[in-house]
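Example complex used in Figure S2.
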Amino acid sequence: MRPMEASPGFRRGWGRQTSLFQFRRPAFWAYAVVVGGTGVFAVGAQSAFRQISPSGWALSWLLLAIYALPVFLAVYFLDLYEREPLSLVFGAVVWGAVAATTLAGIGNQGWGLVVARIGTPEFAARWTAALTAPFVEETLKVIGLVLLVLIATEEWDDVMDGFVYGAVCGLGFAVVEDVFYFIGVFGGSPSAVLAGFYVRVVSSGLYGHVLYTALSGMGIAYFVSLAGEVPIRRRVLVAGGYSWPPWPGTSSGIRRGSTCSPREWKDSATGCSSRWLRR
Amino acid sequence: MKGVPLLALTVVGVTLARRRERGWLESALRSEVERGTLSTVELGLLLDPTARRRSRRDVRARAGAGAARLLKRLQREQVNLAMIKTRVETEDDPDLERHRQYCRSLRNALMAVPGAVLWASSPQAR
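Predicted assembly (405 residues):
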């Protein structure tokens, strides 16, 4: 028995593969309970959208599949050597699509009330989405990534892994959020869905959520995978540097806030009226 | 436009991560080159995704689609060999030894295709 040659740079455990289904880990059950619970709401919401406009709903999913599939494949295949287990990759997608979107809806609404209490209703109508939504959404997506770390710590052995999980989690979030906007804000008719697709996907910059969460994922992966190699202070700094994406979200929200009238904000549950979005 | 700085940061992060992974792959397979499980040329191809795709195109042109498929499989298994190496404790682990044999058999099968032999001795392959 010859021990493995420890050539410089040799990464022990790099090729280890773990699945999402770690029944002995509490984090798996936390993940399952949250996804199961929010899944009921998410299915209810999609069923309501389908009843409002069956053709618009189907078109929304078709357009978003065309938008999401290439980026999913690109992200997955960018990881050249140690591809992530599909159960974990789909686990990240499901968290972003089901748990993070549903909880973000509740969270954004709650924070809206808080801001209204602290400031004036007019101030809340103009600024709530800008001040709180990015933090609520990014935090919820990051919680999903942290759960995946706790479920399969040994899978997070490189920054690239964080990129993959983060990007697909953000992609799941973006797709479901866009379906909500197309039906709930733009009106849901096929022409409104096409207008929504143009405004929210084509002209507002492709893959915003994908990039934000990919960066957060890279930060988490840096922090986790280099434990024992890099001092904790540096890991915190670099991970924090990667995970600043809520700020661009906030700044875009501030721009959005400063160009909307309070009435426009009141027009929709999310604070972005179709009138403003169509500008 | 607001996404450009984020995209740039992501590209930098991914490039650095891939460079790091390339280093890990190289260190895992360097001793396999010394053992003769794979050649320096093959290792070079594994480390460069563009060269890897080009090598398959060359083989397809010289020896046909079957040989290109075989080369793709060989390259995938060579990467898997590196992954197994990072998982096992000893150099003569049965799993590792089995995979070495498998890689050798794939390479022998590829070399049995006339065009592929020509490709292996061509400057592109070097």
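Confidence is low (pLDDT under 50) at residues 253-279 of chain A. DSSP finds twelve helices and no strands in chain A.
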